[in-house]
């Protein structure tokens, strides 16, 4: 077993040096297809000792990361009336309970489309104009994308959503938040969050113009975030890591040097669990990384391995032990 581990680790190092033969590449591929063990992977220190690594520009890293995450595309949302067996399900499930089971969609008499995401996963859908929207959990959106000529396409957001907007010169796209902030889109990819009565806009690509009811305005460039404080009526701008800010779109919770008590609090809210620390001080450990928002077991394993902890789940309670029992 130990010899096999050393063999696989050495092949990985050779691969980073571009010295692998075709046979060795096939050997690695065969191993990767058989549920590989993480401890076989070489340590970062082993790789760094081989040769200096070139620096990768931030935008290139972002493009690669996004391409990896989007390799398996999200399942498109199918309107209820097109779902197989929907009529049967409608007879069995009370209408009032539908919104708690899936992305609830309906069209009102004014031809506006309403989306409510009460699921535990991000829901992605495409509008008639080609615009793609990812709607975060516990969020709702109303859209009107069939305006008259020279009228804007409009969206009213409560919660958080990521927009990839198709540009139409005659019909600009505007996102309205509930606190007087309007996002005027020029054909771009951006994130809007209206949590806690404030508004935060993160721009990934293109350009957007932010207008507030207090008369403030600014134009964002890619990699920037605008924050509007509804209490102070202040609009500010700053540089941010767009991948970190929009990780929720890939069903990930992002943390950067967050105390474990805050991380566990967010996990508890996400999965509806109470959190109990068995020893004082454990909650002050700092965690940086990504945790799945749709897989509690994987999230727990990640934290356990990061801090050598053991989690015990009982009756909607997660107990955090400071020493893992082997």
UniProtKB/TrEMBL annotation:
Transmembrane regions listed in the UniProt entry: 86-106
Annotated Protein FecR C-terminal domain residues: 253-318
Domain FecR protein per the UniProt entry, residue ranges: 121-209
InterPro entries recorded: FecR, FecR_C, Ferrdict_sens_TM
UniProt KW keywords: Membrane, Transmembrane, Transmembrane helix
Molecular function per GO: sigma factor antagonist activity
Tree of life domain: Bacteria
Gene3D superfamilies xrefs: 2.60.120.1440, 3.55.50.30
Protein known as: FecR family protein
